[in-house]
């Protein structure tokens, strides 16, 4: 075969850029064969042509020979001329397909039996050859399918099952898609179930909280209405029974009844407003407002009370300071703070004084504070005064007009704005404060 190959002029021209070296196994012993294999350079390729006979070994299996070649040639690619051993590390090539060879031999045998003329008795023409390659070995040497000759057969190709059993593959695909759909449906159902149960729990807790607040509301309102109802009842009975017959006394009785009725009306309205704020049911009409101007208006409205109590007010802010908030509720907060300061303002060093300050902070916040001279609030009461209906006995009484809701309203409004508020004891007095978001210049 060597002599025939080298003698061919066609081969000499076709493969002139390649350097062929031959190892004739019939002329060497097996150890020499191993030695020759180890000398093969890495950038080489090996073509295996029936290397099954050695001087010291008459016969070796073709698969065993190919395994040996692969072990001793440091992963050099091996091509073959037989389909045997292709799955044992041999890439493949244009090989004798023994199925085609057997088929041709059988056809020839039938012709001989039938005494038909046959053109040849040697089965070795190109009709029995195919390009056959091993999938895993092609992958090992990074040889792509499109680099192979057209019509090549690839053994152990995992994609072959798709073409070999299309019905089964399609059925499996539909089964897989069906399982995915079932899983997605279950996930969606579970998520819906979880959301639904969360809504139920939320509704349950909301209902329980509503019932608790209703009970608390009834309890508080009942307690707060006891005194005015008792007063109204007592003075009404006095009018009916004509306890005092003179017109001035009867007028006083009627004025007390009217005052207490108004007090009850104001209390109920404030409490309802407070509940709406605490539940977040009140919408705010936020807009650009001047907090300095609002403060001036509150002071003006309370001017009579200030004069009656001989209280001096210090408020030095002149220039406008704008915030983004609801004017009605911010005025209510300032009014509650200011009237609270008037009620608790005591004389210190011969003066009753309220100081109001509005400052712009570096964090885009406006800080409002109001200080009144007087006694400090007990430490244990600093947090309690923000709770509805809580009254500090030493400072709250009916004459002062406190309902116990004013500071609770401040707390609810500031919580809706998510802004700071609070109270601090100072030397010779108490300071209440709150913060609001300052309106930016480009707003």
What is shown here, in short?
With 443 residues, this protein is an alpha/beta fold.
> How many helices?
13
Outline: rod-shaped
The main pleated sheet reads as: 5 strands, mixed
Strand order of the largest sheet: 7-9-10-12-11
Q: End-to-end distance, in Å?
A: 94 Å
Structural class: alpha/beta
Low-pLDDT sequence parts: 394-400
The proportion of strand residues reads 5-15%
Q: Quick one: how many beta strands?
A: 12
Mean pLDDT: 80
Order of helices and strands, N to C? Answer: HHHEHEEHEHEHHHEHHEEHEEHEE
**CA-based gyration radius:** 52 Å
Tell me what the structure shows:
48% of the residues lie in helices and 14% in strands. It contains 13 helices and 12 strands. The strands form 4 sheets. It has a 5-stranded mixed sheet. Strands 3-4-5 form a 3-stranded mixed sheet. α9 (247-278) runs parallel beside α13 (406-417) and α12 packs antiparallel against α13. The protein is rod-shaped, with a radius of gyration of 52 Å.
